[in-house]
Design brief:
This protein has about 300 residues and is α+β, with helices and mostly antiparallel strands. The protein has helices spanning about 30-45, 55-65, 105-110, 150-155, 160-165, 175-180, 185-190, 225-240; strands spanning about 5, 15-20, 45-50, 90, 125-135, 145-150, 170, 195-200, 200-205, 210, 220, 245-250, 255-260, 265-270, 280-285. A seven-stranded mixed sheet has the order 1-2-3-13-5-15-4, with helices on one face. A three-stranded antiparallel sheet has the order 12-6-14. It is globular. It binds N-oxalylglycine (OGA) and manganese (II) ion (MN).
C-alpha cells in the first residue's frame, strides 16, 4: 500500500488533505508516522476514510505523535464516564449508551463545541493534534467545520497584524459556555477551569507559518477593557471563519479526521438531538504553554 495525501479541494492546496493507502488498525511504521506528520504540517487537517478502529487502535495511532492529553476538560464525573480518561467522549450518549435528554447537563455543556474553538486552549499547555473517529453518525447534519488560522493571519491587513501581534488572551471553558448562557458550574469546576494565558499570534514550530490563535474559550485580552477585548476577538473570529478559510467535513461512518489545534479552529454543526452521534476523540498535548514558545 502506498500512502498518498491529496488536497480535499484542489483549489486550496495547503488546507485539508485526504490520506489514502494506510490502515489505522495496524501499528504505523516509522515512514507512515513521518508522512502523516509532514502532511499535518502542510495541510493542518487530514481526512482518513474507511478506518474501522476501536479505542485501543485509535490510542495506538495517536500515541505515535507525542504525549497524550487526558480528558480533564470533560464535565462528566469519572464514575459517569462512558469511555476511558484517555478518550474524549464527543457523543450525545450517557454511560449506558442512551441518547441524553434535551436538558441533560453533559449535553448542554457539549453544545459549546458548536462555537469556533481550538481544543484545550483553556489548558496551560493546550492541545496539539486531535483525532476524531466517527463511530455512529446521524443521517443528516452534524458536519464539522475547520478554519485555517494561517490563511486568516496571512489575509489580515498590516495595521491589524501590528495591533494583535504581541497580544496575550485569557481562556476558560467558563467563558465559552457563558456565551451560550451555560453558567451552572460548581466551585470545583470553577477552580479546575480557572483562566489561563495564551498568545494570540503563534508560529508553527515545523512549518514556520504564523497563525491566529483564536477560540471561543477566550474571555479577555490582557490590558484591555473586557467589552473592547471581546469585540475585537469577535471581529477577528468573523474574519478568520469566512468561507474561503473553511473546510466543511461531511462525515461518513468510520472516518477519522485529525487536525492541528495550533493552526486551526473547528466547530460542530447542528443535528437532530434525538439521533445517535457517537464520536471518539484522542488528543496529543502540545510541548509547552504558548507563551513559552518562540514566535
Ligand atoms: C471535538 C469537537 C466537533 C464535532 O471533537 O473537539 O469539537 O463536530 N468536535 O463533534
Ligand atoms: Mn473541539
Amino acid at each position: 500500500m502506498t500512502l498518498t495525501i491529496t488536497p480535499r479541494d484542489p483549489a486550496r492546496p495547503d488546507f485539508a488533505g485526504e490520506v489514502r493507502g494506510i490502515d489505522l488498525r495496524k501499528p504505523l511504521t516509522p515512514d507512515e508516522v513521518s508522512a502523516v506528520a509532514a502532511g499535518m504540517d502542510h495541510y493542518a487537517v487530514l481526512v482518513f476514510r474507511g478506518q474501522d478502529i476501536d479505542d485501543e487502535q485509535q490510542l495506538a495511532f495517536s500515541r505515535k505523535f507525542g504525549p497524550m492529553e487526558t480528558a480533564t476538560g470533560d464535565i462528566a464525573k469519572p464514575e459517569d464516564r462512558r469511555l476511558s480518561m484517555d478518550v474524549n467522549d464527543i457523543s450525545n450518549l450517557d454511560k449506558n449508551g442512551n441518547v441524553l435528554a434535551r436538558d441533560d447537563r453533559k449535553r448542554l455543556f457539549s453544545l459549546g463545541n458548536m462555537l469556533w474553538h481550538s481544543d484545550s486552549s483553556f489548558k496551560a499547555t493546550p492541545a496539539k493534534y486531535s483525532a476524531l473517529s466517527a463511530r455512529v453518525i446521524p443521517e443528516s447534519g452534524g458536519n464539522t467545520e475547520f478554519a485555517d488560522m494561517r490563511a486568516a493571519w496571512d489575509a489580515l491587513d498590516q495595521e491589524t497584524k501590528d495591533l494583535v501581534r504581541d497580544m496575550v488572551t485569557v481562556h476558560s471553558q467558563i467563558f465559552s459556555r457563558g456565551i451560550l448562557g451555560f453558567t451552572d458550574f460548581t466551585d470545583d469546576e470553577r477552580e479546575k477551569w480557572a483562566p489561563v494565558r495564551q498568545r494570540l499570534v503563534r508560529r508553527h514550530q515545523s512549518s514556520g507559518r504564523l497563525s491566529l490563535y483564536l477560540s471561543a474559550h477566550i474571555g479577555g485580552i490582557e490590558g484591555w477593557p473586557m467589552p473592547e477585548a471581546r469585540a475585537l476577538i469577535r471581529d477577528l473570529t468573523e474574519h478568520a471563519t469566512q468561507r474561503q478559510f473553511v473546510y466543511a467535513h461531511v462525515w461518513r461512518p468510520r472516518d477519522l479526521v485529525m487536525w492541528d489545534n495550533r493552526a486551526t479552529m473547528h466547530r460542530a454543526r447542528r443535528y437532530d438531538a434525538t439521533k445517535v452521534r457517537d464520536m471518539h476523540r484522542t488528543t496529543n498535548a502540545d510541548s509547552a504553554p504558548t507563551l513559552e514558545q518562540p514566535v
